[in-house]
Amino acid sequence: MHGMFALVVRFDVRPGAEDDFDRLVEQTTTRIRAEEPGTLLYLCHRVQGEPGARVFYELYRDDEAFRAHEVAVHVREFHARRKPFMAGPERVEFLGPLGGVGKGWPGE
Known about the structure:
This protein is α+β, with helices and mostly antiparallel strands. The protein has one domain (about 5-95): Alpha-Beta Plaits (2-Layer Sandwich). About 35% of the residues lie in helices and about 30% in strands. The protein has 3 helices and 4 strands. It has a 4-stranded antiparallel β-sheet. Helix 1 (about 20-35) packs antiparallel against helix 3. It is globular. The model has no long low-confidence stretch (mean pLDDT about 90).
């Protein structure tokens, strides 16, 4: 995991805005998949029992790939367009490497 950069972000979406937010996420992930080779994982999940909660897990090749993601036009557009859907501020947690397993995982 040396050099990899990971974070988790939680968004709480206003009731009734979940479908619009999810469409915005899909539009954004399509661009991330096509335009960000340094983004290894960018996953969005619903939280069971909390209809408006969304949790993103993001894994980047390194700090440079994360910085490229942050300034990408489609990411800046996502942050601007998501605001009307939010029930509150997002919660961002930056993660430190510990270990893991997965296809293509370093050392596997």
